[in-house]
Design a protein that fits this description.
Blueprint: H1 15-25, H2 27-44, H3 46-49, H4 82-117, H5 120-135, H6 138-149, H7 153-180, H8 183-190, H9 195-231, H10 242-251, H11 258-288, H12 314-317, E1 318-330, E2 336-348, E3 352-356, H13 363-371, E4 378-387, E5 390-391, H14 397-403, E6 408-411, H15 425-437, H16 441-454, H17 460-465, H18 473-485, E7 491-495, H19 503-520, E8 523-528, H20 531-537, E9 540-545, E10 548-554, H21 555-560, H22 565-575
Parallel strand pairs: 3-8, 3-9, 6-7, 7-8
Antiparallel strand pairs: 1-2, 1-4, 4-5, 9-10
Helix pairs in contact: 1-11, 2-4, 2-11, 4-5, 4-7, 4-9, 5-7, 6-7, 7-9, 9-10, 9-11, 10-11, 15-16, 15-18, 16-18, 18-19
The structure holds adenosine-5'-triphosphate (ATP).
Length: 599
């Protein structure tokens, strides 16, 4: 078995390179990009491409036809060289568009990022401002601004950038909100990465693509609007501009129609090229996200259990104490719905505690309260979560970040969704170790290799270079377990760690968890609905129903004798004879059933 599914050569190449490749393979996109590059080069090196000055009028050359008097594309009504004006005018058009674009992306992008990620009052305020900006008629605002600040193309474009920033804001805010809910962002938080790091690393990367696409459209709109203002005579008449040329040509359209054609061609071709590049970029960026996911491959590993830890008193060994925990969610009608109603729980060092109950009984809410990672709208309404005697609610965000990932680690239910598809597995393992353990990149990489080996991955080097879609679900869960134990946590919270996995892999993962727990002397809070898993791993168990712990005790005792009807119901569910499958019978009625393992 290979640890990594076969992928085309160079699968570890960066996504960026693949975007450029896809873009260049799109014929329209490549031609448009080439054209834009030519325009930029031409306007940059304009003095080398024409001997004429763009503003010098030679009245004897007025309305000269192309080729006449040394004028490549002719001369305008004042005898100024059209080719030179196109080249120098292009500078102002492109720089004006760049200014509008920069303002729109900086103002809209930053505010969208903060509003989408942090939310709260800033989101309300910024969303209101964006709605007002979008409701304003752009041209009217620019005309009003011109009457106040005069015919400055730069100011006009800066103001236009502010108006356009509303659309960037909405796009970025919406994208960030959707990323913020991704499990891999929660996983990064659990791994102890700060918000700044999460934004820089996971969020910006996702926001980048829509911004780039939007940027090309914004630039084309800015060029068109700028030209429109200049055409109306509202621009700076002292500068050579494409819109100004259009204005001049329009007034002489019957004498020299080509004077309209050249600037119109320049404006429309550049706008068209920007739109085509935006479309090609969108296709290229979308294409990179469509990597196929291989079939899960059975993972195999046998890790050696370490000797049991030395004895210590029960109190000394208590690391987590949950007392009277109540969790609630704010409802749209202003009320609060309580979903956990006073849960008590303790976990000792080196002990596995199972939190068992049917779906919706409040297990995950209890676990997330310990991590202080309740979803939006959720809050601890009462009770305490004591971590080694310290109330976690009293810790600052920075202190909590130091606890999460380093002291309390988390293994999620859905391994694939908890890995960021944009980064290699190696980079996702290395980052938290650099933050928490202060390791250099090389040291963290070496430790990541050791950890992958430790969790039973056969070709750690290869897996380190792989992207999440290139590994199986079981392997992804091993990677997450490696990440969770990378900082030698004292408590591991595992939320249904095998539910999403293939049956053949589940037992391996449970074995691995048991071995690592013993080796690291970790406390484990195991959230599950499966009494089989409880029997396999847990020392003690708490049974939850409707947000309450209805029964608790040592696993062995509870299996022998339980009192609460709900516990009986859960046991009955797993021991229901109706669920025991009939032995396999071959299609021929008279054939005898085969023994397991018989060929
Ligand atoms: N974001 C939320 N808003 C409102 N209620 C929620 C939210 N998340 C969970 N709940 C409610 O909290 C209760 C407990 O949910 P919890 O996720 O803890 O269940 P669970 O026992 O872990 O089940 P599962 O195994 O299905 O995750 C449920 O009734 C659920 O509807």
């Amino acid at each position: 078995m290979s640890d990594v599914a076969p992928t085309p050569a160079g699968s570890a190449a960066t996504a960026d390179r693949s975007v450029v490749r896809r873009l260049l393979h799109d014929p329209l996109g490549a031609v448009a990009l080439g054209f834009l590059a030519l325009v930029v080069l031409a306007v940059t090196f304009a003095p080398l491409l024409t001997p004429h000055d763009a503003t010098t009028a030679v009245i004897t050359d007025a309305l000269a036809a192309p080729g006449e008097g040394g004028h490549l594309l002719g001369a305008d009504s004042a005898g100024r060289d059209v080719w030179a004006r196109l080249l120098f005018g292009g500078r102002f058009s492109l720089l004006g568009a760049l200014l509008a674009l920069t303002v729109a992306v900086v103002v809209g992008g930053l505010s969208g990022l903060v509003a989408g990620y942090v939310g709260r009052w800033f989101d309300t305020l910024a969303s209101g401002a964006a709605a007002v900006l979008m409701a304003l008629p752009g041209i009217v605002v620019l005309l009003a601004a011109r009457s106040v600040i005069g015919p400055s193309a730069w100011w006009a474009m800066a103001i236009f950038g502010v108006l356009l920033s509303a659309s960037v804001f909405r796009l970025v805010r919406q994208t960030v909100q959707s990323v913020r809910g991704e499990l891999y962002v929660d996983a990064a938080r659990v791994a102890g990465l700060s918000d700044t790091r999460i934004v820089l690393r996971h969020v910006l990367r996702v926001v980048r693509a829509p911004i780039i696409i939007q940027a090309a459209f914004i630039a084309s709109v800015a060029i068109a609007v700028q030209a429109g203002l200049e055409f109306l005579g509202l621009g700076d008449l002292t500068l050579p501009t494409w819109g100004g040329m259009l204005n001049d040509g329009f007034s002489r359209i019957y004498q020299q129609p080509l004077l309209v054609v050249w600037p119109a061609l320049a404006i429309s071709l550049v706008c068209l090229a920007l739109t085509l590049v935006a479309n090609a970029l969108r296709d290229a960026l979308e294409g990179t996200g469509s990597a196929r996911r291989p079939r899960p491959a059975p993972a195999t590993s046998a890790v050696q259990a370490a000797p049991a830890p030395g004895a210590a008193s029960a109190d000394e060994r208590t690391i987590l104490q949950v007392e009277g925990l109540r969790v609630g969610y704010a409802m749209p009608d202003g009320t609060t719905t309580e979903v956990v109603h006073g849960v008590d729980l303790t976990v000792r060092r080196g002990e596995v505690v199972g939190l068992v109950g049917e779906s919706g009984s409040g297990k995950t809410q209890t676990a997330f309260s310990v991590l202080r990672l309740l979803p939006e709208g959720g809050a601890i309404l009462g009770g305490r979560v004591l971590w080694k005697g310290r109330d976690l609610a009293a810790l600052s965000a920075r202190e909590m970040t130091a606890v999460r990932g380093a002291q309390i680690a988390y293994v999620p239910q859905e391994p694939m969704s908890n890995l960021d598809p944009s980064f290699t597995i190696g980079s996702q393992l290395v980052e938290p170790m650099r933050v928490h353990l202060g390791l250099s990149r090389v040291q963290a990489r070496a430790r990541a290799l050791e950890l992958l080996d430790r969790v039973g991955i056969r070709r750690p080097e290869q897996v380190l270079r792989a992207y999440p879609h290139e590994v199986s679900g079981g392997m992804a869960q091993r990677v997450l377990i490696a990440g969770a134990i990378s900082c030698r946590p004292e408590l591991l919270i595992a939320d249904e760690p095998t539910t999403a996995l293939d049956m053949t892999v589940q037992a391996d993962i449970l074995d691995l968890l048991r071995d690592l727990q013993a080796e690291l002397d970790m406390g484990v809070l195991l959230v599950t609905h499966n009494f089989g898993v409880v029997a396999d791993l847990c020392d003690r168990v708490a049974v939850m129903q409707d947000g309450l712990v209805v029964e608790r005790g040592a696993t062995r005792d509870l299996f022998v004798a339980h009192e609460h009807p709900y516990t009986t119901q859960l046991f009955d569910a797993i021991l229901d004879p109706a669920q025991v499958r009939e032995p396999y019978r071959p299609p021929h009625a008279d054939a005898r059933p085969q023994e397991v393992g018989q060929p």
